[in-house]
Each structure stands twice: as structure tokens, then as C-alpha cells.
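Example record

Each entry pairs one chain with its bound ligand, D-malate.
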Amino acid sequence: MSLLNVSFSPDFLLSSREDKESHFDACVVIDVLRATSTIVTALSNGASEVLPVLNLEDAIEFDKKGYLIGGERGGIKPSGFALGNSPVEYRMDVVMNKRICLTTTNGTKALINARKLASDIYVASFLNLSATVEKLSKYENIAIICAGNDGDVSYEDTQLAGCIVEKLHAIRGYDLSDSALIAFNLWQKLGRPQFTGSHARKLIKLGFERDVEYCSSIDVNSIVALYDGEVIRKFEG
Ligand code: MLT
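C-alpha cells for the complex follow.
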């Protein structure tokens, strides 16, 4: 039977499955505010690839190799970086044909952790919702990994997880884990993205209200973003 499982933070699924069969057919990583929204925007505006790395120092090494380096710490662009983690910075005139190296607090870490769970790893946001769901529906057992906030649950990530669960379940009647049921029921209650969680409030305080608004837009593009364990590229075909 096909199964949908949601991890509310990147560590949760890994630790809860240490003694179990830990491989899924696919996993999808979510960091709605803002890393996965930024990645999807960069690819949709012509970036050739996005390379997620854990540390600022690693990114700086890739700067020397000709990558455009982007990311945040505490929501803010690190010093010496070309770009922050605001999707609206990743415009066509900035990223077209560029290789991007990205490091963010939770999002890039979640992607890197997801390599332990599956070899096909997709990158989801509300911006590329339908294209991602269509691609995921070809798989049986799927782990939906929320990047969360520093090990804690994220309200916005959980909403997208629930929305993906709802759509996938409608396509092929997957079995839902308890975590998938929780996310599904939250999304059914809300019915649309409602970004009022702690990280949304923090971003608004930092002046990123426009990002919060943009990241809640559904199906702005039809990008399927696939992480092969090294780089994220637009999936074609
Ligand atoms: C993260 O990876 O923690 C986020 O994307 C933070 C942010 O909003 O920039």
C-alpha cells in the first residue's frame, strides 16, 4: 500500500526511523519561508542549478569557483554574499544561466538530511505546487520533510505539507501516517495559505512582508525541482 508520511522537522523522521526501513521512493522538502520558494524562483528565472551547502564558509569556497552565493543567517544576507534568501532578489536578470550556491538556516539543512531517506528528492513551495504534486503522484511511498524552525514545527511548512497530502490523496488514495493526517486536517480547516506563524511574523518585522505575500502564491510557475543529492535542477521530461 502507498504511504504518505510527514516530518514536521528534518530530524524527526530520521530519528523516528532509525531502527526501521528508512528508505522512501521519493521525498519532498518544504521550506515555504523561504528557502524552497527561493530555489524554485531561481530555477524558474533561469538559474542553471542551485547547490545547497550547510555553512557560510562552504558557500564562500563556491564563490571562488564562480557560483553566485546566496542565503541568510537570522533572515539576513551574510556579509560578502551576493544575494540574501529573498525570492524576489532571484530575478531573471540576476540569475539567468548562473550556478547558485545557497546556505540557509533550516532549508538547506533539510535538503542535505533528506539524502538519507530517498534518492529522488523534490523541492516544493506553494509557487510550484501542482507541477510537484503531479510528479510525486508517480511514487508509492513518499516522505514530506518540513524544514521547520530550528528543530521546531513551522506553521507555514505544515500548511503546504497538508495541501500536498490532500492533493496526492485525491489522486491515488494513499495511506496517511498520523503526521500526514495532522497536516491534512490543518490544511482542510484553513483552506488557503495563512502565514501567521512565528517565522512569518519575524520576516515581517525584518521588512520582508513582500516575501511572505509572494511565498503564499499558488502555482506561479510549473517548475519541478529535483535534488540529485548534489545540486538542484529543473526536471525536464
Ligand atoms: C531557513 O532556511 O531557515 C529560511 O529559509 C529562513 C529565511 O526565511 O530566510
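The mean pLDDT is 95.
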